[in-house]
Write a structure and sequence with these properties.
By secondary structure, this protein is mainly alpha-helical. It has helices at 3-19, 37-64, 68-83, 100-107, 109-126, 135-159, 164-190, 197-234, 236-241, 247-250, and strands spanning 87-88, 94-95.
């Protein structure tokens, strides 16, 4: 294994060892048994086409360049570690970062859906974080909606010729926040308020998440920028093969 890849692998392992000791607690993922059965099935059906597209996308990335497996594994590990860190909220709930913005920027939103659902399954089974019956709902919010928003924001920043690092920061930050907005709507659809309906209920759920999630989203944006800077140093050829670094930038 080349020296640069060894350094990148060791750094990933060190981060996992440092943060994977976080205590188990309920957090943003909708917990086991919280949603009615019909909603669980509905969200699973909605996720299915995206997951199929994700398998096709990942297979294509690997066939194009086998070394992309390193970046794919690193992106999955980043999602697992960063989304396992639960921060207690002043309202009695918990919040956490999502980590899906990085993968969405590098591989596209459909590919991240596969990484996200794998992480969610492991968290539900090993950390009692989320649930298997609510897997579809959690996958849609964290592994589909959030990455899609992050990808769209990053591409928009590219078209507007916004500084690359600023675009990465905004994509990760807003993708994180959008995940929580979608989760709030999912909960509101299942449990609408008696006075105000779905909208009023969604506002209440957003109020639960907002106090801790806003600063966490900023932190996630900064961390994502730092990781991309590291990748530009140690995995530049792989980033170029993905189209993340243009040929004109590489020549500079």
């Amino acid at each position: 294994m080349p020296k640069k890849e060894k350094i990148l692998l060791k750094a990933s392992i060190a981060c996992a060892a440092l943060f994977a000791i976080a205590p188990v607690s309920n957090a943003m993922h909708i917990m086991e048994g919280y949603l009615p059965a019909r909603y669980c099935v509905a969200w699973e059906v909605i996720c299915l086409p995206v997951l199929i597209a994700g398998v096709i996308s990942l297979r294509k990335k690997v066939n194009e360049n086998r070394r992309n497996l390193t970046l794919i594994a690193m992106s999955g590990a980043f999602i697992f570690v960063i989304s396992s860190l639960k921060i207690p909220s002043v309202t009695g709930s918990c919040s956490h970062m999502t980590g899906t913005g990085l993968g969405a920027i590098l591989f596209g939103p459909s590919a991240v859906s596969i990484l996200g659902i794998i992480v969610l399954i492991f968290q539900a089974v090993l950390l009692a974080h989320g649930g298997l019956t609510t897997l579809g709902a959690n996958t849609f919010s964290m592994a589909i909606a959030g990455p899609l928003a992050a990808f769209g924001i990053y591409r928009l920043c590219e078209k507007l010729k916004v500084n690359r690092k600023v675009g990465i920061f905004l994509a990760a930050l807003l993708g994180d926040l959008f995940t929580y907005c979608v989760t709030s709507v999912q909960l509101a659809l299942a449990y609408p308020s008696e006075s105000g309906g779905v909208f009023a209920s969604a506002v209440k759920f957003l109020g639960v998440f907002a106090p801790t999630q806003l600063p966490l989203a900023v932190i996630e944006g900064i961390l994502t920028v730092v990781i991309v800077i590291g990748l530009e140093t140690y995995a530049r050829p792989e980033l170029k093969s993905l189209g993340f670094l243009g040929r004109e930038k590489e020549a500079k």
